[in-house]
Amino acid sequence: MKLEGEQTLMRIFVGESDRWQRKPLYEAIVEMLKSEGFAGATVLKGVMGFGAGSVVHSDRLLRLSSDLPVVIEVVESEEMIENVLDRLDEMVCGGMITLE
């Protein structure tokens, strides 16, 4: 699908172990975006990171935590993104959403 006009980059930062209705949160978000007609979404798994709790999460063999960072990236019109922000705010409890 070719996107026309000005687009917004939305990044959604969550943890690998975050859940929404018994499924991985990142999967639930991607499924919701698809059902809303978004052109696409990409899920990226981090190898290391920390969030508001200042706990470092790493994919090393001797893990500090198994809750690795996950980023969902979406490029879409500002209007489409605004239409799902309330739902995303409800789903993303311990993460962060940024818009560029």
From TrEMBL:
SUPFAM superfamilies: GlnB-like (SSF54913). InterPro entries: N-reg_PII-like_a/b, N-reg_PII/ATP_PRibTrfase_C, UPF0166. This is DUF190 domain-containing protein. Pfam families: DUF190 (PF02641). Belongs to the UPF0166 family.
